[in-house]
Amino acid sequence: MNTKEFFGKFFNGYLLLNLLAMAVVVVLLALGVKYGLEWYTHHGEGIKVPKVEGMVYANARALILEDGLNIMVADSGYNKKLPANCILAQNPGEGTLVKEGHTIYVTVNSPSSPSFPIPDLVDNSSYREAEAKLMAIGFKLLPPKQVAGEKDWVYGILSRGVRVSAGDMVSIETPLTLMIGSGEYDSDDVDLDYVEPEYQNVPDEPIDLNGTNSASGFGIIGEEDDFEEVP
């Protein structure tokens, strides 16, 4: 078989027809997959998520269900300027295209202010450290109260005039007052140096036998004194 006959078998009409048919099948499969997936997933179609932030949860739920979507409370927060059970945030946000039945997660405003435990700060930190930790949690601080002790050292925490300890739950809306040292100490707390008193040795004074002590001047009884006999 020469070269011409060999290549002639590859370029005959039957083989070219088969190759063309295979190419058409591949193209049709590609187009079918593309448009089939778009039809199955409703590509380009969706429901716009309505805005529910600022709405009371009951009204927001009714609106979400009316649009064919679902709603779920994911978290709670506190904003005293908004009513209780008000929607603070939503995910996905307003205007997002989602499929029917998609769940909208919301954050609801709590009816009361949250409470947090007091950290371990008393006799354990300086004023600046305690102030930074409490404000990071969200507590509001009143001007500190000065007490006797090491300057700027925290000796106590007051909540509405009452001492609180580490671990006590306090509302985030309740202001706190730090009791810090003024750098001065009470007299009772000051250690006084004890001074040993000095004693003087007083020499013994001779006794005057004539009737008086030379040092004290007290009289003594002499041998000449008369005594009355007792019968």
Largest sheet, spatial ordering of strands: 7-11-8-9
Mean pLDDT: 80
Category by helix and strand content: alpha+beta
Total number of beta strands: 11
The poorly predicted ranges are 212-227
The major sheet is characterized as:
4 strands, mixed
SSE order: HHEHEEEEEHEEEEE
Oligomer: single chain
Distance, first to last CA: 184 Å
Number of helices: 4
Outline, from the CA principal axes?
elongated
Please compute the radius of gyration using only Cα atoms.
50 Å
What proportion strand?
Answer: 15-25%
Share in helix: 25-40%
Protein model, in words:
With 231 residues, the protein is α+β, with helices and mostly antiparallel strands. Helices cover 25% and strands 21% of the residues. It has four helices and eleven strands. The chain has a four-stranded mixed β-sheet with strand order 7-11-8-9, covered by helices on one side. It has a three-stranded mixed β-sheet with strand order 2-5-3, with helices on one face. The chain is elongated and about 140 Å long. The protein starts with a helix and ends in a 50-residue tail after the last strand.
